[in-house]
Amino acid sequence: MYEGKTNPMDLLNLNKNLTMLQGYSGEVMCKAFLATLKGPTRSWFRKFSLITIDSFGNPSRLFVANFIGCRVRKKNASHLFTVHQKDGESLKDYVRHFNQAILEVEDPSDKVVVMTMMEDLRPGPLIPFPKVSLKPCQHSKARLTSTLQ
């Protein structure tokens, strides 16, 4: 259900694709579209629907023009430079956080993504290795002793 808080184009495209796939007329498309609206968007569209509708084109253009300000604008690639790996944050958590930030950016290039990710990593090993104390086995120790003598 659309309440006027997101990008109206997403709803419009979904509705058009589903109804056109079924071969519905403009009037049926408008009625189906009305069923996806809620609150102020539904009230707005109902007032508009009182006018005779012979196609879905005009109402859909007016809908987008009226609610286009509600869409969330994507950020530019420089936003990725603000995403840093925090102290104590695992590489896995950082990658998850960074990938979420990529989704907020409009058309990021692979080069920019790699460059910003490398820039924002904390220095240190990528994977923490467990501390293991290695003791030489007796056979190696005996061979080393005999070689040295």
From TrEMBL:
Domain of life: Eukaryota
Source organism: Actinidia rufa
UniProt-recorded name of the protein: Retrotransposon gag domain-containing protein
Domain called Retrotransposon gag: residue spans: 33-121
